[in-house]
Amino acid sequence: MFNTTGWNRLRYNLYAPVYDAVAERAFRRARREALGQVNWQPGMRVLLVGAGTGLDLPWLPRDVEIHATDLAPAMVKRIAKRAESLGMDVQADTMDAERLEYPDDHFDVVVMHLILAVMPDPERGLMEAHRVLKPHAQLCVMDKFQADDEPAGLARRALNELTSAIATDITRQARPLLETAGFAIEVDRPVMMGSLFRALLARAV
Ligand SMILES: C[S@@+](CC[C@H](N)C(=O)[O-])C[C@H]1O[C@@H](n2cnc3c(N)ncnc32)[C@H](O)[C@@H]1O
């Protein structure tokens, strides 16, 4: 019943006014570290998927072309507001990560921060990211994951019933997800709460 795209749209529209109070400071270091792993070049075309209120914007280079999308219109409004207050030119649009409205081979970098553990079908989201990325272009991920070498145990799966309804899935495994979607992982490091939160840089192959 929960963890559907419709439920996510509803709850993130409701969370939008308080999102920064919860997430700004808490993830500041982790998002900077993740974005710092990207090999940035002037003029790159960059897509933020599930961009929330745009908390990544302050940590992006100024000489790239930025597109930011989110499922929840209340989030997209806040992205546009943040971009304006930062003096950044950002194309902000409401869009489902499962159906990106961009052509194939269009972006140099796709950023997916704290969305793969939220969307009901992360495989589909990653396939879309792969489709819109140019060959060998970069995917920047920061999220919470279960260790790749062991599936989630019973207790974690039980807790996941609650966390996935109100916040996020805690049983997903990064490496199988990314590799199945056609990405080669170049960097994978823990960035927060031990190894629960990881920052990964991968290439579309
Ligand atoms: C935990 S927030 C992360 C926001 C932001 N990336 C950040 O790092 O602060 C998850 C975001 O993903 C968005 N989202 C969830 N499902 C989505 C989907 N199918 N397509 C696009 N955005 C989605 C939500 O609306 C929410 O803004």
UniProtKB/TrEMBL annotation:
CDD domains: AdoMet_MTases
Annotated source species: Halomonas urumqiensis
InterPro entries, alphabetized: Methyltransf_11 (IPR013216), SAM-dependent_MTases_sf (IPR029063), Thiol_S-MT (IPR052356)
Single Gene Ontology BP annotation: methylation
UniProt keyword terms in alphabetical order: Methyltransferase, Transferase
SUPFAM superfamilies documented for this protein: S-adenosyl-L-methionine-dependent methyltransferases
One Pfam assignment: Methyltransf_11
Superkingdom classification of source: Bacteria
Database matches in Gene3D superfamilies: Vaccinia Virus protein VP39
Sequence ranges assigned to domain Methyltransferase type in this UniProt record: 48-140
Name of the molecule in the record: SAM-dependent methyltransferase
Entry GO MF terms: S-adenosylmethionine-dependent methyltransferase activity
